[in-house]
Amino acid sequence: MTLINTCILMLFLQPLFVYLALFKQSKHTIEPKSSLDNEDSMFLFIAPGLSVFYLDQFWVALLYLGSVCLLGVLLAKIVESKANKRLTRDDSIGFIVASFIFFGVIKLIIVAAAYFFTDDSTSAIAQDLSPAEESPLTVSQIFSLDYLYSQFKPTVYFLALMVVTLVLKIVEYKFLLKEALSGILIIISAVLVGISPLFGEAYVLGVIANFFIFFIFCSACIEIDKIGDASGGAIAILYGYILMMGLGFSIICKLVYEVLF
What we know:
By secondary structure, the protein is mainly α. It is about 70% helix and about 0% strand. It is built from 11 helices and 2 strands, in the order H-E-H-H-E-H-H-H-H-H-H-H-H.
């Protein structure tokens, strides 16, 4: 499985992992709000450990899969107040280390089996017959503005939309205008969090960047609403629902595209 498909699969499974880690009752846990202690909790932290299967691009895989794990942890912290168990820093570190050890052992077993049971000459022939790979980009090329813009063009436009939305929200608050337009833009932005990266070159990082951009700017808009109305934050439930629907639709579209094309 390619790295991008693994990241998409892990991203799609994060809500299930959060449920298993925080909401599923453990037969070993009696006290409410106890720390994580059952085997299901490790699923929330398996994503970074999978990077050991991509040794040729380990640091890129660690960045992608670590970001996916971070999104799952963020979701867990958001719903922790309603959960049966609580997530602590020691739990997070321990399960991540265990994940690397577990998948590292599996990787060693696979490598050992390949060494003893695979014909080296066959591997050499296959390597000679394989087409030449393109030379990798240098660090300066990767971090150049032209390259970053070409990879994250939809995210740049999304950031501009969120800036306009926040400015409009401030103007509406200062001049006591109706908040219909800014509210519509936030709803549109919630949908675009997952949809816009489909049109870029870096889907996983685009989704992650859009998520954090939306979270920051939407939180600022909600805080402005709370100044005039203490119940103004209740609309956040609607924004969250639309956000999850857009992300789910985006992931399904990406999986269908990867499988069929």
